[in-house]
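User: structure tokens for this one?
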Amino acid sequence: MIFTVGGIKGGSGKSTIATNLTVWLSKRGFDVLLVDADEQETATKFTKWREHITRGASGYTATVLTGDAVRQQVTKFKPKFDHIVIDTGGRDTTSQRAALFVSDVYLVPFNPRSFDLWTIADVENLVKEVRSLKPDELHAFSILNRADPKGSDNKDLAVLLSESFVIDYIAPAIVSRKSFANTASSGLGVIEGNPVDEKAVGEIDQLFTKIMGIIGVVIDANFSAKTSVK
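Assistant:
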């Protein structure tokens, strides 16, 4: 499967979702390629920190691609990996459109109480445009990221996202927790944290497991995994 994590506004935590998804998949036995298609290169910096901590044993392959090269090179890489995760920037760029054209899954994080809410219609239009040109199916999911620990804003945004007929909202919300920043600064996924943040790990695991179930990726109870579709 090819996953693109994107949107058309920065600051929603796309790189956090992309890097944690990459680590989560690799820890379950998949051969994963992480593609950094964001001009800020956050995923690349994450990987460099990870390789420093693990002495080069990141557990996945990483590369940087931009523009239409994303479509061309990812197409070539697809047979070589179980999954490819593409981290794109927070704008409607050539890189993101190129990524979507070859992707199976589009993950769009939204934050509560932010200008992200104003971009929902624009993201829907982007998805509809790509689907009209794309030969294969594109699953699109919205995610509530950096959510509040409590309060009504999460619920309000979840209701709004659920009203879309173009992008499927998927729970649980990923709550804003220090463990995400602490692990990322060391090039680690939140599932690798020490001490383990059980709540953060639970949210990530539930979210990704649910997505995999919808798109046909089977994960067994012993954390070994295989996909029914490549």
